[in-house]
């Protein structure tokens, strides 16, 4: 079986490639930069704007796994280019090649399209897939953590310094990147559930309060850490400061601040994948410790 994959070099994509290697799946992977040779992987040079590269990516493939997208961007145009227009091109390439299966990685953010540009464009990307005429399935991951992650890594860094600020109130679900990779590949074969949008987490009913998550990360880092809840207004002020300091490289953008201050990013129990298809395997307490250790060994902490 050949699976065409976008976003292969990113955080989730690398975990998918590791899992695919365990399963003996052949991958055809899109990349913007030269990559070292990897068993079972054929690298295709190009990006989501390169229609010729996308046609080459999907030619002869049995399924497409579309992971690539934009999580953080300074402008509406960049969000739209990555999450909507890019998805449209991948879908068009898949249709043109007669692909039998299309698996789309969305986000819990798609539940709240009016909240931010990220949320809105993730919902629009879903709608592109839903109206594609393909045999499709989609996954809306919550907060994804694990080795190589650069988003929740900010909380690990703060815990290492002994002070973790979190938005006041609110809860979120979590999923380890390896568990997400297993779910995505479980949806790839023909005959897997079709026309569905799943939400998936670590199995913790009701998710994690922001303060609970911060304390769990502090424990994983091995530091006595003060957790401070901050108001939405202060979060938005911090976003303006981050933009002034880091410019286009800012992690806490105004768009991101609106997403972070939303009180409910907990998976809907009715939207979970059926147990016969997938169940989480990584206990979060253990996964956070292993992630902190990876950050240390990689020189990130």
Structural notes for this entry:
The chain has a domain at 2-144 and 174-204 and 267-281: Rossmann fold, CATH 3.40.50. Strands 3-2-1-4-5-6-11 form a 7-stranded parallel β-sheet, sandwiched between helices. The mean pLDDT is 94. It is 41% helix and 18% strand. 47% of the residues are buried. It has helices spanning 11-23, 51-58, 76-96, 117-130, 153-161, 177-186, 210-221, 232-246, 254-261, 284-297, and strands at residues 2-6, 26-31, 41-45, 63-66, 102-105, 136-140, 143-145, 163-167, 171-172, 174-176, 196-199, 208-209, 226-230, 264-265. Strand 5 (102-105), helix 4 (117-130) and strand 6 (136-140) form a beta-alpha-beta unit. Helix 1 crosses helix 6 (177-186), helix 3 runs parallel beside helix 4 and helix 5 (153-161) packs across helix 7 (210-221). The longest helix has 21 residues, at 76-96. With 301 residues, it is of the alpha/beta class. The N and C termini lie far apart (39 Å).
Mean pLDDT level: 94
Q: Low-confidence parts lasting 5 or more residues at pLDDT below 50? A: none
Structural class: alpha/beta
Q: If classified by CATH, what would the architecture of the domain at 2-144 and 174-204 and 267-281 be?
A: 3-Layer(aba) Sandwich
Tally of helical segments: 10
Provide the spatial order of strands within the biggest beta sheet.
Answer: 3-2-1-4-5-6-11
The main pleated sheet reads as: 7 strands, parallel
Percent strand: 15-25%
Helical fraction = 40-55%
| Quaternary organisation of the protein chains | single chain
Question: Going by CATH, what is the homologous superfamily of the domain at 2-144 and 174-204 and 267-281?
Answer: NAD(P)-binding Rossmann-like Domain
Q: Measure the end-to-end span.
A: 39 Å
């Amino acid at each position: 079986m050949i699976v065409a994959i976008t976003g292969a070099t990113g955080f989730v994509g690398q975990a998918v490639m590791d899992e695919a290697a365990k399963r003996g799946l052949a991958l055809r992977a899109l990349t913007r930069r030269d990559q070292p040779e990897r068993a079972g992987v054929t690298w295709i040079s190009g990006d989501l704007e390169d229609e010729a590269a996308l046609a080459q990516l999907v030619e002869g493939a049995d399924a497409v796994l579309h992971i690539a997208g934009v999580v953080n961007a300074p402008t509406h145009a960049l969000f739209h280019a990555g999450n909507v227009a890019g998805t449209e091109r991948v879908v068009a390439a898949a249709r043109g090649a007669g692909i039998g299966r299309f698996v789309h990685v969305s986000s819990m953010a798609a539940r709240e399209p009016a909240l931010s540009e990220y949320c809105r464009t993730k919902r629009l990307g879903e709608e592109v897939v839903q109206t594609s005429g393909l045999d499709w399935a989609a996954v809306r991951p919550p907060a994804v953590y694990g080795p190589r992650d650069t988003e929740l890594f900010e909380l690990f860094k703060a815990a290492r310094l002994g002070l973790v600020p979190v938005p006041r109130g609110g809860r979120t679900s979590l999923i380890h990147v390896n568990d997400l990779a297993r779910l995505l590949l479980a949806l790839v074969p023909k005959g897997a559930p079709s026309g569905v949008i799943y939400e998936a987490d670590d199995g913790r009913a009701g998710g994690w309060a922001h303060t609970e998550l911060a304390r769990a990360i502090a424990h994983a880092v091995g530091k006595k850490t003060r957790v401070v809840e901050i108001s939405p207004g202060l979060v938005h002020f911090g976003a303006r400061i981050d933009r002034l300091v880091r410019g286009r490289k800012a992690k806490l953008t105004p768009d991101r601040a609106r997403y972070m201050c939303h009180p409910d990013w907990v998976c809907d129990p009715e939207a979970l994948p059926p147990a016969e298809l997938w169940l989480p395997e990584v206990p979060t307490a253990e996964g956070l410790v292993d992630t902190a250790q990876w950050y240390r060994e990689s020189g990130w902490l």
